[in-house]
Amino acid sequence: MTAARPNPNIVYSIQLLRGLAAMLVLVRHTAKFAYPGHAFPVGQAGVDIFFAISGIVIYLTSRKLSWHVFVRRRLARIVPLYWLATTLALLAVLAAGGTGVTHGTATVLNTVGSFLFIPTFDGDGRPFPLIVAGWTLNFEMYFYAICAMVLATPLRSHFTRFVSAIIVAGVMLGCVLFCGNGDQPGWAPLYLLLPITLEFVGGMLLAHAWTRGVRTPLWLNLSLVVAAIGWLALAPSSEPYTPFRPIGWGIPALAIVWAAFASEERIPFARFRFGLLLGDSSYALYLIHPIALAAWVVVLRKLPVKLPSSLAAVLAIVGCVVAGILVHLIVEKWLVRIASRLLGLRRPPSPACMESTETAR
């Protein structure tokens, strides 16, 4: 029986996957604090799920927009909270004498790059922004820049084809450059040419198939999830800039995303209210949790008794989830409304809506 969908413009499976991806990353980072050496490596796949979802969302919401409406919507949605979190991280780094809790030594160039979503090296030669988790936002902005460029040309009538072609061409160029430099570019922005960007293409292709009525049976979707989990459990640990990450982590992430996506009309995802709330607040949770975890570590060090690692980890996860939801409801939505008004948008872009409310003007 087809599940009733309260809002036909929301793909509830994608919202739940957003929450799942954020939780995977949160558990991964919490485990790194609580269990050094046993840091739940499968949690890294949350990033790959996010990238696949980004490809889906852009395909469903943006391929018919004008380039300037697209840019304004993306800026309103991504930039305000990221700049706020980056400012807080910068203040923390300055208060600590130039070194962050989970970051290397900050530099002026690294700070500027952090605000502009450009990969730069910090004072210790690491290619991460002030918020370490923000390395993924650099890739997101790279993807959006390519989309905007295509939307600004006559190529927009073949949006998916040309966005994919540009990303593939960039990956091919990156492979040539990396192979000649020990798999490590001497110029940080070249990290954007890594094959992980192919996961955006994978998401767009999944959305292309979905909008044309392609569906797989539930038994196959369940099999895909089981196989993907097994794949992730056996795959070697994949650091952020590993060239082979799409093979070890991207393929199973895309399988999980498709399994949920293809089950949209047959599973009542809209009933999972808390999961949908996590999905709505996933961006806030993703950005805020490193700061919340760092604060929790400081609190643990000041406690008169040492908490068991498992209890400390559970409390940290609960605290980060609560913080992420509150930041989403109180801060993020307010910032997006203000940014949307300043950028001349008719209404703020919603993380849940899969149909644009702006025209392609």
**Secondary-structure element order, as H and E?**
HHHHHHHHHHHH
Helix content: 55-70%
Describe the biggest sheet? none
Euclidean distance between termini CA atoms: 40 Å
**Cα Rg:** 20 Å
By DSSP, the count of extended strands is: 0
Net shape: globular
Structural class: mainly alpha
Mean of residue pLDDT?
88
What amount of the residues lies in strands? under 5%
Structure characterization notes:
- By secondary structure, this protein is mainly alpha-helical.
- It has helices spanning 12-34, 45-62, 67-95, 108-116, 135-151, 159-179, 198-211, 218-234, 245-261, 273-280, 282-302, 309-342.
- The radius of gyration is 20 Å and the shape is globular.
- Helices cover 63% and strands 0% of the residues.
- Mean pLDDT is 88; it is low at 1-5.
